[in-house]
Fold:
Amino acid sequence: MTTSCDVLIQGGGGAGCSAALHMAQRGLRVVLLERGLVGGQASGVNYGGVRQQGRHPAELPIARRSREIWGRLKELIGTDAEFEVTGHLKLARDEAEEAELIAYLDVAKAYDLPLRMIGRNAIHQEYAWLGPKVVAGSFAPEDGSANPRLLVPALARAARAAGADIREHAEVVEHAHDGTRFHLRTSGGDSFAAPVLLNMAGFWGGALAARFGEPVPVVPLSPNMAVTEPVRYFIEPNLGVVGGNVYLRQIRRGNVIIGGGHGESDPAVPWSRPLPEVTLQTLRRAVELVPALAGVNIIRSWSGIDGKMPDRIPVIGPSRTTPGLFHAFGFSGHGFQLGPGIGAIMAELVLDGRTDIPLDAFRIDRFLETAA
Amino acid sequence: MRVAVVGAGPAGVRAVEALVAAGLTPVWIDEAPDGGGRIYQRPPPGLLRDPGKLYGFEAGPATALHAALDALKPRTDWRPETLVWHLRPGAQRLSTLHRGRQAELAYDAAILCTGAMDRVIPIPGWTWPGVTTLGAAQIALKTQGCGIGRRVVFLGTGPLLWLVAYQYAKAGAQVAAVLDTTPFATKAMAAPGLLRGGTTFAKGLYYTAWLRARGVRIAEGITPLAIEGTAHGVTGVAWRDSAGRTHHVDCDATGMGWGLKPEAQLADLAAVPFRFDAQQHNWVPQRDAAGRTPVPGIYLAGDGAGIGGAEVAEIAGARAALALLEDSGHRVDAAQVTRLDARLARQARFRTALERAFPFPAALARAMADDTILCRCEGLRAGELRAAARAEAATGPAPEVNRAKAFTRVGMGRCQGRICGAAAAEILAAELGRDVAEVGRLRGQPPVKPIPIAPAAEAA
Structure:
């Protein structure tokens, strides 16, 4: 028996579950198919940064839109997923990095993103625990962090409550399009049909796009994450650096979450793990930023699988080959903050045929042009 | 061929012995300063105690194992005080930490002899200072020559309960009570099978009789109610007997444990599949009778591969080494293999009886009160885990333990659920109305044990 609906979504990450929620709220019959558990990969295992500062300018309108949703998450999905507005402090470790921070101030201004530059003297006065290698920083007061383990399951639960049919352990093994409707079949033998299909399958979105004649150069990306034992709370802002090779934040209960570099993965299983040498290299960078971390124990490390595009920005928008197919995947390691907003934007694309957010930079055929 | 043996307890020593006899020079890694495993852990240099006093009936095997260990060390790449905190099966590399120094080690084959630890059921008051596991109470006595308290209650079930109580009493500590959650009748019914264990069973009877003869308070088939105490330490233990009467005894320390569970984190990181062993009531890594796993180059022996005790571990260590040698094209003595296999089979039958005699009291874990601290690393109470299993939870119901971990932090702390994992699975299974095997096991992540962040100065 085939289940018919208005919209099929493949992929139960933050973006997919948010899309299911927003479309169900507007009355569409939505079925979301997730191979594992919702939020099992990139959306659930990432660093938890809710960051606008430092993003590619094309992403900033989405990030602004998403940040507005983050601010009212509790009323939307029943939990704030431990979202806390701690500010995000991006650090420079030499003059070249400092110049990059200064250059970004103009970008932030153009997109109304509050951002404050902190110079050489002030930064060590404001944050006495920073190491001597830090020469400057820029502070984004609206940014913060949240708990990735809680966000997506809560989005899925809210979507269900709004009427969406969220199916876990439902791997799609067959895709077809008859000219007007998509026909999907899962490994469990269930069939689904709808005039609209959203490809929100992260790294695996590449294979789905290729299935409809739109191959893209997406590769797996595995964050290399670690967490310390709880220690006295002293690092309030979410910390990053120019270049992004280390980032860390402390949660109120004391644990410090540290990321940087990439682990190893096999998307076919799927399986992913941090790499020990990457973990140790990241810890060396972290202790340079915050020397007081020396001697603190790492108690756990982990990874997951995201999709990375060559230009480090996602694919978002309608298919160029198949009417009714929309893509949103390849968030390249920084999709957690964007997820809630992407869902709202996809709902607009499907229901209104348009959105105020400029999406041209994310079109799927951009790689064809550069190749030609 | 580069062979690594992790662990220098009974399994590790006999594995290395067989490898060295075949002309190999394995890398041999152990966390302790001088090997011996938990059961035959050696005191630090300078603490001179007679092996008979330290190990009791086990003095013979302990002395023999230590002699083998000392003779083998110079014939291997011996690395004591070294933690293997990660293992990458694809790259065939171990990540090790020795006195703050990190090292990567390549291997072609590895025998993991990682041992066991106590299985714990949290009860009210178990986080007071002065509460240890039975194993920890025993190690304090064996390696430091000191007890966990002056007046001690031992609580739980299994052979170790009676052994540790005996050892404490013998060493001069006051044993205030031995409280066994297993009824006497359960043990009596398993007695015919236990007789196959020969001396092991006889020793168990001896400890019990010895304690009784000295007037030590003994209660069987009890339900622990609480370990009483203050922030300064334990003050007593309360329990309910099989007739429903409550009792109390004063003490200043409590050792507790309900059998053992494999320390199988490295096998987990090595991607060895696990199965739930209903008899042991433990998740154990998959291996054949010789110790081969489905992961090429990874062999398992000893309690880390499923609880069997020290005697079995010695046989299994030798057997796994022979399997490794055979698989890598060495000639092995077929008669020796047959002999070892026969001894392993005999021991397995005894083990079945032992598990029947001291079954894991899953009902005790399942009945844990909502306000009892379940996960002490994260300060999580049993009721919080139960709430996460319910459909009305903000995140939706947690259908298995790793999802429950994501939602509640259970097993997310320093020990990664090594302490609370077994009880957490029981609680979740009960709440979901499922069999405990269906809610899964907490997946291990590197590092196997906490590793410190090195100071920045070392990088400069």
Q: What stands out?
A: Residues 86 and 237 of chain A are 5 Å apart (CA to CA). The longest helix of chain A spans residues 95-110. The mean pLDDT of chain A is 97. Chain A touches chain B at residues 37, 44, 77-79, 131, 149-150, 153-154, 156-157, 160, 228-229, 264, 271, 273-277, 279-280, 283-284, 286-288, 291, 293-302 (CB under 8 Å).
